[in-house]
């Protein structure tokens, strides 16, 4: 049996929109398309052929493309990978994971600016924050939205680069046009070229007449994520297309012009990528006419509690629960944690805690993943060590008052009102008001939407 490519599998799991599972006879036993929930997308012959092939050979198929039609006449182009399900060295089924790269109304015109009833694109109002640095990012989004120059969005993985890209599009004059997004790290260079530029029938085995993302995004916005992961040869081709304003499909000799605003993103510092030859210098200057830098979560500590409340509220609504917040110990660890996965990691941690919380009202340490608990304990030791060096001459009274203030802040953030915060702290409401006045604390309103 052929060994599976772990890197390829991780790429699929990071970006897939749906899945099809077949048993050993080829019968479909599960089908889900998370991008389109209206139920009119069903597996067809083209979609099940890769399942049949994998069932027969036991070999995985990575990064292929396909075109599907719905009962309503809409067209969807997917990239997919199909993997065998093996038990005791026998293929007992196959699973196909796919990602949508477009969604259209018919075989010709493609519309990707989603409506309010179908997973709308993010808008500027969806980025709600208490961080001054993130408020500056929002101001930058408004400023660049009125222009038509390329924008490079820089930030670590999980900071919300695609949310910012979508907000630029929805704040711009191109809002009625399509918004297309492609992660350049998710697929190999040969397939990326076909997706971006399109193909003509006969260009290679199985090639069909298909428009690329540049053609489909005409009049709108094309977002290229993790541009620093694109192979140098592909970067050169991309640069030529952008500078000429025209694209030639793979296998064709004719070119067509396009009107597309290019947004790109890098998950590493772009100048360092240029120095390390990960990003062509000429392409960097072409794409970074305007730049937006998104700070990591560890550099905007004020947002940690704010976002935690938001994700708790979201999961309360989704799972029909009434979780009030996190325990003081968890909140303290959250503020000390380095958050390598940024906002995405925080979101996933809160959602995971909800799944094992039961009827509890507060997320406690035992509800966090094991790896997070271990990392947070290490972070706490470093914080305690640092405090020990700088606080040697702080007296007991100051230490107690500092800890009391921290607990009250945590309780106020983790509960809906002062009464619940008092219950949480096991003191009277009047007593809590007195301490809030003593420490200059006030009850902050919860944000509705957050990055």
The portion of residues forming beta strands comes to: 15-25%
The number of domains: 3
Number of helices: 16
For the record, give the distance between the C-alpha atoms at the N and C termini, rounded to a whole number.
44 Å
Tell me the number of strands.
16
Low-confidence stretches: 5-15, 35-47, 69-75, 102-119, 385-394, 445-451
Q: Using only CA atoms, what is the Rg? A: 25 Å
How do the strands of the widest beta sheet line up side by side? 2-1-5-4-3
The average pLDDT score comes to: 79
Which architecture of the largest domain does the CATH hierarchy give at level 2?
3-Layer(aba) Sandwich
State the secondary-structure class. Answer: alpha/beta
By CATH, the superfamily of the largest domain comes out as: P-loop containing nucleotide triphosphate hydrolases
CATH third-tier fold name of the largest domain: Rossmann fold
Taken from the alpha-carbon principal axes, the silhouette is globular
**Major sheet details:** 5 strands, antiparallel
Broad CATH class of the largest domain: Alpha Beta
Fraction of residues in helix: 40-55%
């Amino acid at each position: 049996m052929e060994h599976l490519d772990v890197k390829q599998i991780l790429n699929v799991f990071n970006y897939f929109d749906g899945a099809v599972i077949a048993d050993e006879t080829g019968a479909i036993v599960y089908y889900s398309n998370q991008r389109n929930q209206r139920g009119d997308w069903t597996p067809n012959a083209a979609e099940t052929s890769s399942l049949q092939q994998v069932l027969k050979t036991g070999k995985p198929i990575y990064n292929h493309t396909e075109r599907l039609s719905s009962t309503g006449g809409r067209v969807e182009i997917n990239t997919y990978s199909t993997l065998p399900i093996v038990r005791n060295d026998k293929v007992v089924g196959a699973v196909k994971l796919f990602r949508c790269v477009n969604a259209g109304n018919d075989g010709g015109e493609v519309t990707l600016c989603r409506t309010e009833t179908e997973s709308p694109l993010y808008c500027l109002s969806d980025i709600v924050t208490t961080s001054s640095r993130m408020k500056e990012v929002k101001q930058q989004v408004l400023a660049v939205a009125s222009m038509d120059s390329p924008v490079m969005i820089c930030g670590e993985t999980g900071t919300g680069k695609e949310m910012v890209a979508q907000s630029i599009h929805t704040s711009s004059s191109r809002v009625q046009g399509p918004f297309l997004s492609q992660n350049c790290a998710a697929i190999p260079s040969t397939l990326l070229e076909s997706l971006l530029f399109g193909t003509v029938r006969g260009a290679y085995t199985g090639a069909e007449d298909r428009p690329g993302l540049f053609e489909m995004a005409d009049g709108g916005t094309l977002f290229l994520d993790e541009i620093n992961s694109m192979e140098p040869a592909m970067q050169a081709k991309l640069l030529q297309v952008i500078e000429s304003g025209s694209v030639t499909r793979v296998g064709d000799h004719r070119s067509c012009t396009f009107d597309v605003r290019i947004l790109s993103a890098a998950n590493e510092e772009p100048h360092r990528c240029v120095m390390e030859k990960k990003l062509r210098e000429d392409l960097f200057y072409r794409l970074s006419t305007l730049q937006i830098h998104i700070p990591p979560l560890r550099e905007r500590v004020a947002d940690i509690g704010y976002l935690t409340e938001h994700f708790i509220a979201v999961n309360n609504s989704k799972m029909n629960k009434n979780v009030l917040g996190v325990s003081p110990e968890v909140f303290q660890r959250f503020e000390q944690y380095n958050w390598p996965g940024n906002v995405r990691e925080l979101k996933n941690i809160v959602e995971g805690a909800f799944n094992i919380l039961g009827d509890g009202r507060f997320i406690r340490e035992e509800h966090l993943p094991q790896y997070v608990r271990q990392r947070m304990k290490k972070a706490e030791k470093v914080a305690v060590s640092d405090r020990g060096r700088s606080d040697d001459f702080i007296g007991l009274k100051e230490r107690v008052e500092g800890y009391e203030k921290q607990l009250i802040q945590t309780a106020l953030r983790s509960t809906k009102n002062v009464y619940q915060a008092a219950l949480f702290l096991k003191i009277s409401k009047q007593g809590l008001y007195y301490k809030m006045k003593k420490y200059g604390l006030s009850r902050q309103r919860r944000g509705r939407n957050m990055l």
